[in-house]
Write a structure and sequence with these properties.
Blueprint lengths: L5 E8 L5 H11 L17 H6 L6 E8 L5 E8 L7 H8 L4 E7 L6 H12 L3 E7 L8 H12 L7 E2 L8 H11 L12 E10 L3 E10 L1 E3 L4 E3 L5 E2 L3 E5 L3 E4 L1 E3 L3 E5 L13 E4 L18 E7 L5 H14 L4 E7 L3 E8 L2 H14 L4 E3 L3 E2 L1 E5 L4 E4 L11 E16 L3 H10 L3 E7 L4 E9 H5 L2 H8 L5 E12 L1 E8 L2 E2 L5 E4 L3 H15 L7 E7 L2 E8 L15 H21 L6 H6 L8
Parallel strand pairs: 1-3, 1-4, 4-5, 5-6
Antiparallel strand pairs: 2-3, 7-8, 7-16, 8-15, 9-14, 10-11, 10-16, 12-13, 12-15, 17-19, 17-20, 17-21, 18-19, 22-23, 22-24, 24-26, 24-27, 25-26, 28-29, 28-30, 28-31, 31-32
């Protein structure tokens, strides 16, 4: 295939600006998908993606388009997610492209993730085509938005293509612009083969299937391949392209995007970001990989049945293959036995992973409340990194505790500035700057502790701005503060999975709120169950879950009072004996109560 006729591009945008719908129209207009196969969001093939209406995984597809100059071009499209938690998927997809379509909703304009994804594309030195979508809507303002793009990004408003992905208006014009403006791939066809793995998934018949972009040389189906980072050699089961379904081919040449079914059975052998070359004629050095995605939020995942522990480990390993940002390590809890401490990029990422484990692997999981990674400076100068409140060492040996702070950008209509400032102040945020984008929209910048951001900040931001505000965040620095560990004791036993690290000033009221929530959630036993919140040895709040009582005096009427007393005494002794051997079951709702402490009761 002539490399000058290949165009590799991806679609980037804020969540819900119409990326997947635009991908559908491109597939339809290039005849990649027949009318019979056509359905909404073709590339979102995960049940969870279709249900929630969001793209979770980047997906690749090859299209053929005959341009007005009569030449047939091969177009490789990589559709990317828009949610801030999946921005690492976007960064990987962009490395396999030469151009990017920046899609902006003509009713909402530029949002936080639009800019974040654009800067990522500019870092990779991609050709940017600006597209204003949803021009068929009555509230559309395409010319205004095109001007906004020019003011903010510097792309000429006259070059902005106005389309409607839903009706197909001007999509043919967009295809011609891709052919004209996106440069063909560079790379040496005669050099030793090098292909970058930008994604992968696991197939029980073909092993690890690596999604690759071939940079140099040619990869043939019959050749033995060498993975440069892991040092593994393998003969591929098959190689092919996405059309949009997997279609086997004999070879992939420089500039092409496709897949290699490696036949490898374990995750560690085939990593995203690795370079594939041939064993017979290996390349001298690998392609630049990816900056490892750093998890920000950690939670404990425990199987409700202890026998499912190995199944949970296998499921996490397979998911990790499909999701390079997922990290996990085994941990034990006194309350929940054996499980894993799992790292995520954000709360939405955690929610998706939990739901995928339950659906795709049929596991019943109990998740603890999420926490963030803290740095603990000991008195002897040693610096520890802890992912869970249970790991916090003895306070007497601690010099200081540092927590991660994030820089956040909020785009909002100006009428909501007061509500946002109030929300950020309550969450210990610090103001940085405020810029007007136009006469009605504002960009606010703040610094805020990640622990305050992960739990319910996004939901509260959306509800206090009627859904109009958008948020983007990135890591800023670790900063010391007065942080203490809040322990929860149920029936005088500490429940390590309910412990949390809080600011000293908030400890008292958070302890009180948590105890009163747990009192409602923990089921009543045959005996009284005390629930306590404590900082160190100091109990700051307590409540009792009243005992269930059987009326032992029901048939005891008349006669001497000593008879009644004897029966009640007997019942008391039985309850005391029960309490010694009793084990209080803590329900899942109790672990999640930690998340909703700020809710007004």
């Amino acid at each position: 295939m002539d490399k000058s006729n290949i165009r590799n591009f991806s679609i980037i945008a804020h969540i819900d600006h119409g990326k997947s719908t635009l991908a559908d129209r491109l597939l339809q207009m290039t005849g990649t998908i027949s009318e019979r196969e056509m359905q909404e969001q073709v590339l979102d093939d995960m049940a969870l993606e279709r249900e929630r209406g969001v793209t979770i995984k980047a997906s690749a597809v090859r299209m053929q388009h005959t341009a007005t100059d009569g030449i047939t071009y091969t177009m490789n499209l990589i559709d990317t997610p828009g949610h801030v938690d999946f921005s690492y998927e976007v960064s990987r997809a962009l490395q396999a492209c030469e151009g990017a379509l920046l899609v902006v909703d003509s009713t909402q304009g530029i949002e936080a993730q639009t800019l974040a994804n654009l800067y990522m594309a500019l870092e990779q030195d991609l050709e940017i085509l600006a597209v204003v979508n949803k021009t068929d809507l009555p509230a559309a303002r395409p010319d205004e938005i095109a001007q906004e793009i020019e003011d903010l990004i510097g792309l000429d408003a006259a070059d902005v293509i106005q389309v409607s992905a839903k009706t197909g208006r001007n999509v043919d014009q967009l295809l011609e612009a891709i052919v004209a403006q996106v440069p063909p791939p560079k790379g040496e066809t005669n050099a030793p083969a090098r292909a970058l793995i930008f994604d992968s998934h696991y197939d029980s018949y073909k092993g690890v299937i690596a999604y690759v972009r071939v940079a140099d040389g040619v990869i043939h189906r019959t050749e033995e391949l060498h993975l440069m980072a892991s040092g593994v050699d393998t003969v591929p089961v098959e190689i092919g392209v996405f059309n949009p379904h997997m279609q086997p081919v004999d070879s992939l040449a420089s500039g092409e995007v496709g897949y290699i079914a490696t036949g490898l059975k374990t995750v560690r052998e085939c990593r995203v970001g690795d370079t594939i070359t041939t064993t017979a004629n290996p390349a001298a050095k690998p392609l630049p990989g990816y900056r490892q995605a750093k998890p920000m939020v950690f939670a404990g995942f425990y199987p409700t049945e202890n026998d499912d522990y190995n199944d949970l480990r296998d499921a996490l390993e397979k998911l990790q293959l499909n999701d390079a940002a997922l990290v996990f390590e085994p941990e034990t809890s006194q309350a929940l036995n054996f499980g894993f401490r799992v790292g995520f990029l954000g709360l939405f990422h955690m929610e998706i992973v939990q739901e995928r484990l339950e659906r795709e692997y049929d596991l019943d999981i109990l998740a603890t409340a999420p926490s963030v990674e803290y740095q603990v400076v000991m008195r002897d100068g040693e610096i520890l990194t802890i992912h869970s409140p249970a790991e916090l060492p003895d306070p007497a040996a601690i010099e200081e505790v540092r927590e991660p702070w994030m820089q956040i950008e909020i785009f909002t209509p100006e009428e909501f500035i007061g509500a946002i400032m109030d929300l950020v102040t309550k969450k210990r945020g610090e103001y940085i700057s405020m810029d007007y984008l136009d006469s009605t929209r504002v960009q606010l910048k703040y610094r805020i502790p990640l622990a305050e951001l992960v739990v319910d900040f996004y939901d509260r931001l959306k509800s206090s701005t009627r859904g109009y505000a958008s948020l983007d965040y990135h890591f800023d620095a670790y900063q010391p503060d007065k942080l203490v560990k809040l322990d929860v004791l149920v029936n005088k036993h500490p429940v390590d999975a309910l412990a949390m690290i809080v600011h000293e000033d908030d400890a008292y009221h958070k302890g009180q709120k948590l105890v009163s929530k747990l009192k409602r959630l923990i089921p009543r036993q045959q005996y009284e169950v005390p629930i306590q919140a404590a900082v160190g040895k100091h109990v700051i709040s307590r409540a009792n879950v009243k005992a269930l009582r059987k009326d032992v005096l029901a048939k005891c009427y008349g006669g001497d009072v000593t008879r009644k007393k004897k029966l009640l005494e007997k019942q008391k002794k039985g309850k005391k004996r029960l309490k010694m051997i009793g084990n209080v079951e803590v329900p899942q709702a109790a672990f999640m109560a930690v998340l909703r402490l700020d809710d007004d009761d």
